[in-house]
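Q: Got a minute? One more chain.
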Amino acid sequence: MAMWNTYVWVESAERTASKVLDAGGTTLMEPFDVMDAGRMAVFADREGAAFCVWQAKRHQGARIVNEAGSLNFNGLNTRDVEGAKSFYDSVFGWRTLTLEGGAEMWTLPGYGDHLEQGNPDLRKHMAEAGAPAGFEDVVATITPIPDDQPDVATHWDVTFAVDDADATAAKATDLGGRVIVAPFDAPWVRMTVIADPEGATFIASKFVPENRDLAC
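A: Always. Here it is, folded:
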């Protein structure tokens, strides 16, 4: 089945493999070298959601993010939020940030400090946009899977930034893809869920500051 994979940068794929097993996860692919680009492995969390880790060598990962047409976010869709919090805290040291309305996001303490090395005005710009305190440390989203969707498996998804969610949905259809969820407004964004011609799904999201106060 065609799908997008989520990668997390780690210092050691082997040490991460040990942490995954200790936390109750499973190894799907043991650590291996990708030529001289890096070293990777594939794991599944306690619920079976697959994810990859990347130990960088020559290839450091995404060079452009949050620009139209580039990676914007990754998110875990889970039925066991508390269990996921325990697992990803044990493996990666992630915490959570609760937004107004109850939505939660993964954070890595100190990540904002790392980002400010390349963008010294990061916190200033976030404050001007109305971002909540601590948002600079956000690394991913958490989405609880509703009980009325029994066929939806726990999984990681990928979100790409776009200039126009509606135009992107229309273009995807023209190119042989399928719109799974029509464009809709959500807090901070207007987004749509799309499947490419082979069935791999992804989210296309336009940042809309005017939507900040929308209910989740």
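A: The chain has two domains: 7-56, 71-211.
Q: Perfect, thanks.
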